[in-house]
């Protein structure tokens, strides 16, 4: 009988893992920005404005600073969350789950975090913005983000 080498549930943080996270974050953030600023306006009549949410949450006056915060979160912290939280949980609970379902689930989780935790619980806006079309456009954007992060992580063998 041949033993199959199983991946550890929790990954080791290496330079390769951080590079993967950054590549995944840049690719996913570019995808998000195209969706949010070019495609979403065709659907709902205006772009997604995550910097406005960041401003509401943190009480910032500077739109530029809010954009930078959203960029850093998207390029580094969200992809690391996928690698260090979503993948390990999926491996521990449902090890046979295809990568794209993990990635899409992560995208849903990011959407819940943005529009329930941040927008509702912290900024005091209606939960999921009252499910207006902007909320659904945001869901699609977060699904795309998660899918791109997952695809890059898979491509990089992480």
What assembly state would you assign to the polypeptide chains in this entry? single chain
Largest sheet features? none
User: How many domain modules?
Assistant: 1
Helix share bin: over 70%
What is the general shape? globular
Poorly predicted regions are none
- List the helices and strands in order: HHHHH
Count of runs of 4 or more consecutive helical residues: 5
User: N- to C-terminal separation?
Assistant: 27 Å
Radius of gyration: 17 Å
Task: Provide the β-strand percentage band.
Answer: under 5%
Organism: Stella humosa
Transmembrane segments: 64-85, 97-122, 128-153
Protein name: DUF1440 domain-containing protein
Keywords: Membrane, Transmembrane, Transmembrane helix
Characteristic terms for this protein:
single chain, 158 residues, mainly alpha, 5 helices, 74% helix, globular, membrane, DUF1440 domain-containing protein, transmembrane, transmembrane helix
Question: Could you describe the 3D structure shown?
Answer:
The chain is mainly α. It has one domain (36-155). The chain contains 5 helices and no strands. The longest helix is centred in the middle third of the chain and has 31 residues, at 63-93. It is globular. It comes from Stella humosa. Keywords: Membrane, Transmembrane, Transmembrane helix. This is DUF1440 domain-containing protein. The chain crosses the membrane at residues 64-85, 97-122, 128-153.
């Amino acid at each position: 009988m041949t033993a199959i080498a199983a991946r550890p549930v929790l990954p080791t943080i290496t330079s390769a893992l951080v590079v993967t996270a950054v590549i995944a974050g840049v690719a996913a953030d570019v995808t998000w920005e195209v969706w949010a600023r070019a495609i979403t306006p065709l659907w709902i009549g205006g772009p997604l404005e995550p910097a406005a949410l960041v401003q509401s949450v943190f009480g910032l006056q500077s739109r530029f600073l809010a954009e930078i915060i959203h960029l850093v979160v998207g390029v580094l912290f969200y992809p690391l969350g996928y690698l260090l939280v979503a993948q390990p949980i999926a491996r521990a609970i449902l090890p046979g789950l295809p990568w794209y379902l993990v990635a899409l689930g992560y995208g849903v989780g990011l959407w819940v975090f943005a529009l329930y935790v941040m927008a509702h619980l912290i900024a005091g806006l209606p939960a999921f913005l009252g499910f207006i079309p902007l909320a659904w456009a945001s869901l699609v954007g977060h699904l795309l983000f998660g899918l791109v992060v997952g695809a890059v992580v898979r491509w990089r063998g992480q």
